Amino acid sequence: MSITSALQTGVSGLQANSSKVENISSNIANANTVGYRRTFSEFVTQNTNSKQAGVLSTTRADVSSNGGLVSTGRSTDLAVQGDGFFVVSRNVNDPAESNYFLTRAGSFTPDQNGNLRNAAGYFLSGFPTDAAGATGPVSGNGFGDLSTVNISSYQAAGSPSTVIAAAGNMPAQETGLATPGAPFISTMRYVNQLGGSEKLNLSWQPSATPNQWTVSIADDAGTNYGSAAVNYNDSGANAGSPASYVSNGLPLDPATGTVNLTINNGATPQQISISLGAPGSFDGMTQFSGDQTPATFTDDGTETGSLVRAEMSDTGVLYGVFDNGQRRALFEIPVANVTNPNQMQSVNGNAYVATLESGSVTLNKAMSNGVGSVGSGVLEGANVDIAQELTDLIQTQRAYSSNAKIITTSDEMLDETLRIKR
């Protein structure tokens, strides 16, 4: 090897080790970056005229090795537990597939519009569901069916009341008095056909006849739906249960103790069945001595609800919890995967794009096809081992110094050669 070749070899060694120091410094700087994947240098020989005359450095990322999980308690902090990546986009509902990336950085928070966005500014993508919580047919081989995950623009449609059951106790000693006392009023709330809350007032008037009450139903607008006499058993095995009903304009079925109201609150009236308790049963309004037990009502209707919070399941389904008690799926968050993740190309913001070497992207349901589950309230840390990086830094520093010594020695030899010539 000539002196010039030795110089070139030393310079290539300096450049290669400089690149390695750059990677090590980046790893150490990002040791606390969420979802960061360490980079490292690989050296290959460089040939000149069929002779080994130096070294080249290539940089790779250790994408396939996972970092540790850190609990945060925030429901929108997400982590893939196992293999796979979240799909994120540069813009909300971005139409360009080239603006979709893969990342393990799941530090998502809602922006001013409720779109989930991570610290790098990328928006989380998922498959939206319909009102029944189903995604329908979606493609796992592209990003065309994805939408930006939003957790603010949702309401749960209400369902009108159809069946209401009343339960309570009327005090037996209030009946049979020469001068009956004031009626007992119960307020029953129901859900109208638009998902709003309305109320009906049930008045229980004690009668001068023992064990007899007159129940009437009216609303706040003054509509009176009629009344009925309710007689209670005063002895035997059925004492305290309804004995019979006698309607006085109230649409009541005496065989079942069910009031079938028609409420004119729309183009199509709302039908509501109110069960007061069948004769001989104790599952409705009873009459025993003692204090009144205010009536409670079990309603099958639900009011229109607003989104209160979002919850993520292990299978990647994002559920919305509404203030009317409903809970339904809003999005299915796919977990993306490629055949060789270490060959993906890195982009700004701790994200990656697929290349020919990595293979194409496939979108999978979490916990299927070899991909991991989705954890909520946790973040994945960097896969950087500080001790290993410092060890590599010392080794690289020594290698750099050795290559510098080659250049110094070669320079001295060249000077000596020139002096001989002179």
TrEMBL record:
- Specify the Flagellar basal body rod protein N-terminal domain's residue ranges: 7-37
Q: Does the keyword Ligase apply?
A: no
Family assignment from sequence similarity:
Belongs to the flagella basal body rod proteins family.
**Flagellar hook protein FlgE D2 domain: from which residue to which, for each copy?**
193-301
The free-text function statement in the UniProt record for this protein reads: A flexible structure which links the flagellar filament to the drive apparatus in the basal body.
Put simply, this protein is called: Flagellar hook protein FlgE
Keyword Thylakoid annotated: no
Location in the cell: Bacterial flagellum basal body
Q: Which GO cellular component does the record give, naming just one?
A: bacterial-type flagellum hook
User: Which Pfam family, any one, appears in the UniProt record?
Assistant: LlgE_F_G_D1
Q: What GO terms in the biological process aspect are recorded for it? A: bacterial-type flagellum-dependent swarming motility
- Where does the record place the Flagellar hook protein FlgE/F/G-like D1 domain? 79-126
Domain Flagellar basal-body/hook protein C-terminal residues, every copy = 376-419
Q: Give the source species.
A: Loktanella atrilutea
What SUPFAM superfamilies does UniProt report for this protein, alphabetically?
Flagellar hook protein flgE
Assigned keywords, A-Z: Bacterial flagellum, Cell projection, Cilium, Flagellum
